[in-house]
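Provenance and format

Records in this collection were gathered into a single text stream. Each protein contributes a sequence line and a token line. The two records reproduced below are adjacent in the stream.
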Amino acid sequence: MAVGLYSKSYFENYYEAPWCRIGPYIVGIVTGYLLAAQRDRIKLNWSIATIGWLAATAVALAVIFGLHKDLENAGEHAMSVAEAAFYNALASTAWAVSICWVIVACATGWGGFVNSFLSWSPFVVLGRLSYLAYLIHVAVIDVYFGNQRTLLYFTSLHFAMCFVGIIVVTYMFSFVLMLALESPMIGLEKVVLHQRTKI
């Protein structure tokens, strides 16, 4: 399982293939449209909000821990082809549905402490960098692992240190790129749109 997970064919045929991400994309587009066009019409009550939070939490945990047994046993009790196909086909979309529920609940006043936590001011800065971080994180990972000259033996501590290091470097580069590219383009867009509205 671990070998297949990091193989070149996995990345080319599944991880990087845009059609494999169409489900979460559609879920996000539909959610964004509903919030932009119909937010005032979305009416939730306590029971619907509770069921929504329970369902979203259960689905998210199923996606996260769905492969636990398979990975823990190192392939001894690997999933069948049908189970693996089912998980791969639906996991990303199910995760997107869970995240979209959190967004809808927070936007309609049913977010509770989750909304308070996600509204914390330091997250605003990280939120502005998140898309750039998404775009460049694969390059950072490729550069790091591509420059290794010896075999790596992953332990939990080593994996955690790699994760933290890659996150920090990715956000550092994202900040530089935001200052160099995104911020000037946003300023230019405001000037162009402002002039167009005057005309």
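Adjacent record:
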Amino acid sequence: MYTIGEFGAKTGLSSRTLRFYEELGILYPKQRNQNGHRLYGLEELATLQRIQSLKFIGYSLQEIKEILSNEKITLESFANTLPVQKKILVHKREELNQAIEAIEYVQDLLNDGIPLDWRILTSLLYSMEFEEEQNEWIKEHFEGEMATIFTDIPKELRKKLDKETLFILVDVKKLIRDQVPAHAPEAQQILVRLTDIFLQAIPKEAINNLDEWENQLEATQPDDFDFPNFWTSEEEAYLEEITKVMEQNYKDEG
């Protein structure tokens, strides 16, 4: 028989962890020495090994407690729970991979010298986390080719275009800070760059449908889904002013 310290040293667990397991009721030493100290033996070792095995395949301590304390749970009935447990672990793995990818992407942006604030960072991470939900929204609100074009953009191209957009955002913030008017050439160049990003995202043969897409955009209700947005209301207003100036210039030239 071993004291809690001796048992912990042999099993690699701290006395604090063993006491915690006792408080949860999943590993309770039945014997004590004459001084009232807990004593652990082969029975406790077998229970601990079962706990560690179940933890290894992803069961929570609460689930382990239920398995150990429920006499009706046989090895056969336990085996029936494994497919569900596998699905849970696969989902967790996918979430972890997604989180790691997001971290690497943010580090890449910082390494490229793109200044990030909380608004931009939150938008980026939200967009990556809820990409599937956003694609579903697009499929629901847009028809045919337009929906598939925006949902089928390759991930690497999407990251590239996001990065280019962030560089433009940096320039827009500077133009606003320097109070550069919308009719200035450097301001109008912003819209040219944004248009180029849009054209990179769609196939060349789809450009002829731009009028139809514009009608679909006007028919959607943006409030139905809160898309992450890099831009502040001030920056959006500035871009809208640039667009109006360029449209007017186009009409005057025509």
